[in-house]
Amino acid sequence: MLKAIQILGCSSGFISQRLKKSHSGNGFSLISSKGSDTSTSLFLHPFWTPKTLTFRLIRMFSTQSESNSNAPASSSSFSSVAVHSAGNVHKIKFCQWCGGPAKHEIPDGEEKIRAICTLCGKIAYQNPKMVVGCLIEHEKKILLCKRNIEPSYGLWTLPAGYLEIGESAAEGAVRETWEEAGAEVEVVSPFAQLDIPLIGQTYIIFLAKLKKPHFSPGPESSECCLFELDNIPFDSLAFSSIFVTLNLYIEDVKSGKIKFHYGTINKRLGTGPSDIRAFTLDYHLQA
């Protein structure tokens, strides 16, 4: 079932939604205010409160029961800001093949400015990087690492890093987990893919389990720890992708069904890397 959920970060109150305290007392649910046979709710961690964020839940289903709705969707309801760029092309001063000076212009038949060698004519294309990692559940706790390097030094994250040439996404996630947490893991299934167009990154996070109940911080981590879901340090997380991933996982656990999630994190222009909540989330797929 396809869903689109846009989560909008700002400092005001809730928009067109009513706030309902969850039965567990540990969070809130956003319930659609429109009358319908099908309701949608999204559990939000207590840190996602009206004082810090605004949430807008957009209901959009591809199920047959709603596909015949006569009410047209407002174009503004589904609008989101996505920044598409060719990267910081002006940083490329020289050709990577022959060393010749680069010029910056739009090549014939294209729409974006590229770095073009003035000697050999080759075009330098900048492509997104893939970040892979593991969400490791052990005895109803999640393994997190405290970063020992910049960016986000001293903040918590899932073990993850850049995929390398010659390895699959799952292999890269297992390797990164070993390097950052000293843990041998077995991948269970993919859990989330989160695209971040503004910074040219795609995150693929796998559910995994420990082969052995042993872990220890690697050179890039100062500490590794298993956290109960209610004790995850949401106020000290390193990246927006991890913030989203952990909230999605908590919601799945509370619903009793672990799903695969795909969405786009649209980070706000002009915000620093430490402001991990300055984003909108276009939630495209849940399966």
UniProtKB/TrEMBL annotation:
It comes from the Eukaryota. Its cofactor is Mg(2+). Keywords: Hydrolase, Magnesium. InterPro entries: Nudix_hydrolase, NUDIX_hydrolase-like_dom_sf, NUDIX_hydrolase_CS, NUDIX_hydrolase_dom, Nudix_N. It comes from Herrania umbratica. The gene is LOC110415062. Residues 127-250 form the Nudix hydrolase domain. CDD domains: NUDIX_Hydrolase (cd04511). It holds the Pfam family NUDIX. Gene3D superfamilies: 2.20.70.10, Nucleoside Triphosphate Pyrophosphohydrolase (3.90.79.10). PROSITE patterns: NUDIX, NUDIX_BOX. This is Nudix hydrolase 23, chloroplastic. Belongs to the Nudix hydrolase family. One of its GO terms (molecular function) is hydrolase activity.
